[in-house]
Amino acid sequence: MYSFFSNLKKCRDNNELFPKIEVIIANFILDNHKIIPDLSIKELAQRCNTSTSTISRFCKRINGSDFKTLKEECRIYNNFLEEKEIVKPTNQRTLNESYITDLFKAMKETSQANDIEKIKNAIFWIKEAKKIFFFGTSFSNILAQNISEKFMRLGKNTICPLTISSQNNIITQIKPDDLVVIISFSNNNFQINRIKRILRKKQIKTIYISSKQDSNYNNEITLLVSSLNYKEFESPIIQEFSINYIINYLYLFYIESSYF
């Protein structure tokens, strides 16, 4: 759900990177998501002054899916907005104190989750890689852009595709001497699982930054982060700090190891 709307937002917010008609479609859906489940593909095309074939191509390009899936994503999102109840803290002081406490707990758990040899192996792979491809969906894609930018500034050839269609296109270009870094707190959603299947088939070295490890392949390293999160909130207000801890630790370790 969030990945789909995140991709729409990227299309709208980065309008110079997308065809004008796709920006128009994305903008219409974001502004009118409540009525999308009731529209036919022909009706949506008419609202956006385009053709049904353009709508179909848009769905495929933005989310790797079809119009039926687009309608279902909007329906799920609309239901979520109607039904979701946020648990409110008793007072602002309680919120501040508990949040800080939980942040420190998450940082400590993350700092203790990975032994030094695992970190060294990850750094070695990063140094040896000809290109590094960073993948993430929804909010994790923002974190993927963060680490991609950081290692680009250290002279690495980094690539971080923004949309699912871009990810699907770029993944075919990955070669055996490249490295992939996947950021996903759950390590389990449709797009990430699809990427993992392709990478494992091609036997590409992959580093995961996640709260869960789902394999023990020799060409994979999982850098674990704390599993602590606020389930009553949908935004990763704890997880982003845990993941950024690993990102920044890799960055600092890479710089430090370059002097030896």
UniProtKB/TrEMBL annotation:
CDD domains: SIS_RpiR
Pfam family, one: HTH_6
Membrane spanning stretches: none
Alphabetical keyword list: DNA-binding, Transcription, Transcription regulation
GO process terms (BP): carbohydrate derivative metabolic process
Residues in SIS domain copies: 122-260
GO MF terms held by the record: carbohydrate derivative binding; DNA binding; DNA-binding transcription factor activity
HTH rpiR-type domain residues: 5-81
Signal peptide: none
Highest taxon, organism lineage: Bacteria
InterPro entries named in the record: Homeodomain-like_sf, HTH_RpiR, RpiR-like, RpiR-like_SIS, SIS_dom, SIS_dom_sf, WH-like_DNA-bd_sf
Protein name (record): MurR/RpiR family transcriptional regulator
Species in which this protein is naturally found: Fusobacterium mortiferum
